[in-house]
Specification:
Number of domains: 3
Largest sheet: 3 strands, mixed
Order of helices and strands: HHHHEEHEEHHHE
Shape: rod-shaped
Radius of gyration: 52 Å
Number of strands: 5
Structural class: alpha/beta
Number of helices: 8
Strand order of the largest sheet: 2-1-3
Strand content: 5-15%
Length: 237
Amino acid sequence: MGRWAAAVFAVRERLPMWVQLRCGLEPKTLAALAVILVAAAVFAGMHFWSARPEGVRAPDMVGEAVHAPAPEADAETEPEGSGRPEPSPGPAAGAGGQIVVDVSGKVRNPGLRRLPSGARVDDALTAAGGARPGADLAGLNRARVLMDGEQLVVGAPPVPVPLPGGPVGEGAGAGPVSLSTATAEQLEGLPGVGPVLAQHIVDYRTQHGGFRSVDELREVNGIGTRRFADLRPLVRP
């Protein structure tokens, strides 16, 4: 009991005076008070431990590969039926994949004809009822692909133009059409040249001061390789 009495005395000496007076300095009271103080200390310690700040882990960095778009499938490995449209080169077409051509001259039913894109001269002749009897089709390329807005003159004679240095009017020899002096109406007499294309030729020579060579005709809007080959022997600068 010596150690217990010494411990009780030590605790009593450290208690405030009002506690000593209130509790009457009894050993049992001091022991109960000590237990309460210890329990309070334990509770405070637990509360402090649970309220301590905890470290938060930063989120992982999202790689660029997650947001990068998936690479397009190679054309050679793309499965059939994928729905990717294939480019289809061809003449310019109007609305709905059709072209409008003006068929005139020696045909049974001249006028405007709507044909599918990629139609040829022979298709236009068929749509116009065919050529009239006696119409000369020797200079007409019936396999040529038509362009939208083109005028097709069937069986028209060559356009008479004055030769260099020759007289104007009757007696003037017929020859190649001059690209630098012919009117739009004269240019329309050429195979495959309609009002729109004839105006393009006139606009080009106005902007460039005429034609210095027949090869410049290829720079006119609407003159492709096939059409240039048809017009080359029929025109001059």
